[in-house]
Design goal:
Blueprint: H1 10-34, H2 41-54, H3 71-81, H4 87-110, H5 116-127, H6 130-136, H7 142-157, H8 161-174, H9 179-192, H10 197-204, H11 207-222, H12 228-236, H13 241-253, H14 260-269, H15 277-295, H16 302-305, H17 309-322, H18 332-382, E1 388-391, E2 404-407, H19 415-423, H20 428-439, E3 443-447, H21 448-453, H22 456-459, E4 463-468, E5 479-483
Parallel strand pairs: 1-2, 1-3
Antiparallel strand pairs: 3-5, 4-5
Helix pairs in contact: 1-4, 1-5, 2-3, 3-4, 4-5, 4-6, 4-7, 5-17, 5-18, 7-8, 7-9, 7-15, 8-9, 8-11, 9-15, 12-19, 14-17
C-alpha cells in the first residue's frame, strides 16, 4: 500500500525545503569553485549567441544546421539570453533549475515509501552525487532531459497516463533518444489499458500532436528531420558493439569505484519489485533499455551515462530503506531512525568525497581555459574575419571567436558527413585529411598528435603559427594553430 502523503504537514514542507536548499547550494558552490563547462555546451552557447546577435540559431551564420543534439534546449536558452543573460550562463541556469526540480521530485516520490524526513535524507544521495552535480551546471541539455524522463516515469508509476505521455513526448523533443522513454511509457500504458480503446486514445493523443509539431518545426528551420549532429556522429564514429559494451561497463562501474556501493544498494532496492511491481517496473525497464540501446551504439560521452542515475539512486534509496528491516525488529520509530541514520552515513561520505572531486574538475577546467580557449582567443585576435578554420574542438576554440568553422565529425557542415560516407574513411586522421583537402581551410586548430598524423601532402600548405602547451600531459594535449599565412 502507498503511504498517504500530507503535503501540508510541517515535516513534509520542511523536508522539501531542505532538499531544495541542499540541491541548489551544492550546485551553486560547485559552479562558483570550478567554473566547470562541458565542451559541447559551448557549441550550444555559440548558437544561442548568434541567435541573440544575428537572429539565426546556427553555429556558422548563413549555415542553418542543428549542430547540437537538442535544438529545443538551445531555443530555451535563447529565451533567457534574450534578456541580456550570457548565453552560456543561460544554459547553465536551465540545467541548475532542472536538476534541483528532479531532486525535489525524487524526494516527493520517496515519500510514498518513507517518512518525509527519511525521504529527504535518502534523496540527498542524488542531490549530492558528484557526477550529477557536475552535469547540472555543465551547460548541456542533460539535466532537462533527465527531468522530462523522470517526470514521465513518475507520472506513469502513479497512474497518471496522460501526463506520462506528455512528458515522454517532451523528452523525445529534448533529445532524440527520448523515444526510449516514450516507448517504455507507451508499452505500460497499452498494457494497463488493454481492451479500453477510449481510455488508451485519451492517454496517448498528445504524442501525435507534440512530436509531429516539434519535428515539423525542426525540419522547416533546419531542413532536416533529425538533428544534424546525430547524423554527423553516425557517419563519423564506427559502431563496434562489443568494444562499446566493454567501454560502457568500465565507465559505469570502474571509473568511480566508490560508486559501487550505490549499485549494490540499488540491487537490494530492486527486491521491492516483488511487492511494488506496478509502480517500480517502469523505472527498472527504462534503466535497462536505455543502457542496452546506448551500449550497442557509439560513441560514449559522459552525459549519456547521467540520466539513468536518478533511477539508480531511487533504487539505492529503496535499498537503504530495506536494509534496516533485516536488523531492526522493534518499533516503527526505531526503524525510521535506523533508515535516516543509514542515509546520513552515505551523505557524510559523499560530502567528504566532494572536495576531492571539485579539485579534479577545477584542474581539468584550468586546461580548458588556458589551452583550448587560448587557441580560440588567438584566432579571434590574429585571423582575418573571413577566414575558415578547421578543428575537432568546436566548443572551447569556436566559442572564443566568430570565424566560420568546418569540423570533424561535421557537426556544423552538411557536406562533411556525406564526404566521410562517400570515401569510407578509416580512422580520425584519415578523415582529417579528407576534410582539409576538400575545404582548404585557412587555419587548422589541432592537438599536436592530430597535426603529426596529417599526411605530408595535406600539411604542405600550412606552417605553424602558434602553440599552446600544457604543463602536464595527463591534463590534455598541447594545441597548435597552423595557417596558410601566419599573421
Amino acid at each position: 500500500m502507498n503511504r498517504i502523503i500530507d503535503r501540508r504537514s510541517h515535516d513534509y514542507q520542511l523536508s522539501l525545503l531542505a532538499v531544495l536548499t541542499v540541491s541548489l547550494m551544492s550546485r551553486l558552490i560547485f559552479w562558483s569553485l570550478t567554473h566547470y563547462t562541458i565542451e559541447d555546451s559551448l557549441i550550444i552557447g555559440r548558437m544561442v549567441r548568434n541567435f541573440v546577435t544575428s537572429g539565426e540559431l546556427a553555429y556558422n551564420i548563413g549555415e542553418r544546421v542543428s549542430a547540437c543534439t537538442s535544438p529545443l534546449f538551445a531555443a530555451m536558452a535563447c529565451g533567457i539570453a534574450w534578456f541580456g543573460v550570457d548565453p552560456l550562463v543561460a544554459a547553465k541556469i536551465l540545467g541548475l533549475v532542472a536538476s534541483a526540480v528532479t531532486c525535489v521530485l525524487l524526494f516527493d516520490y520517496l515519500c510514498d515509501f518513507a517518512t518525509p524526513v527519511a525521504a529527504a535524507t535518502l534523496s540527498g544521495l542524488y542531490a549530492l552525487l558528484p557526477p550529477v552535480i557536475a552535469s547540472s551546471v555543465g551547460g548541456m541539455e542533460t539535466p532537462v532531459y533527465t527531468l522530462t524522463c523522470f517526470l514521465a516515469l513518475e507520472r506513469l508509476a502513479r497512474g497518471r497516463f496522460l501526463p506520462a505521455v506528455v512528458w515522454s513526448s517532451m523528452a523525445t523533443l529534448v533529445r532524440p533518444d527520448g523515444v526510449i522513454v516514450l516507448l517504455v511509457v507507451g508499452f505500460f500504458v497499452a498494457g494497463r489499458l488493454r481492451g479500453d480503446l477510449r481510455g488508451t486514445l485519451h492517454s496517448v493523443w498528445p504524442m501525435f500532436v507534440l512530436i509531429p509539431t516539434g519535428v515539423t518545426l525542426h525540419a522547416l528551420y533546419f531542413h532536416s528531420l533529425a538533428p544534424h549532429s546525430a547524423i554527423a556522429k553516425a557517419a563519423a564514429y564506427p559502431v563496434d558493439p562489443v568494444a562499446n559494451v566493454s567501454t560502457y561497463l568500465g565507465r559505469m562501474f570502474l571509473t568511480w569505484r566508490s560508486g559501487l556501493v550505490i549499485y549494490a544498494l540499488s540491487v537490494l532496492g530492486m527486491t521491492r519489485l516483488r511487492d511494488r511491481s506496478r509502480e517500480l517496473m517502469p523505472f527498472a525497464t527504462w534503466y535497462a533499455v536505455y543502457h542496452a540501446a546506448f551500449m550497442l551504439r557509439a560513441p560514449l560521452f559522459d552525459w549519456y551515462l547521467h540520466p539513468p542515475l536518478v533511477v539508480l539512486t531511487l533504487f539505492a534509496a529503496l535499498g537503504l530503506l530495506a536494509a534496516p528491516r533485516w536488523v531492526i525488529r522493534r518499533s516503527h520509530a526505531h526503524l525510521v531512525r535506523a533508515q535516516i541514520s543509514a542515509g546520513a552515513v552515505l551523505l557524510v561520505a559523499l560530502l567528504i568525497a566532494l572536495p576531492g572531486y571539485y579539485r579534479a574538475r577545477r584542474r581539468g577546467q584550468w586546461y580548458e581555459d588556458h589551452v583550448r580557449a587560448r587557441a580560440g582567443l588567438w584566432l579571434s585576435s590574429h585571423a582575418s574575419s573571413g577566414s575558415l578554420v578547421f578543428t575537432e574542438s568546436l566548443g572551447y576554440i569556436g566559442y572564443q571567436t566568430s570565424h566560420r568553422f568546418v569540423d570533424w565529425p561535421g557537426l556544423v557542415s552538411r557536406d562533411v558527413p556525406t564526404l566521410l560516407r562517400r570515401n569510407n574513411g578509416e580512422g580520425r586522421t584519415n578523415s582529417f585529411d579528407l576534410i582539409i583537402a576538400h575545404f582548404h581551410p585557412d587555419y587548422l586548430a589541432l592537438r599536436d598528435s592530430e597535426w603529426g598524423g596529417l599526411s605530408p601532402k595535406v600539411k604542405a600548405p600550412y606552417k605553424l603559427c602558434a602553440e599552446f602547451p600544457t604543463p602536464s600531459r595527463d591534463l590534455g594535449s598541447t594545441y597548435l594553430i597552423a595557417g596558410v599565412i601566419c599573421p
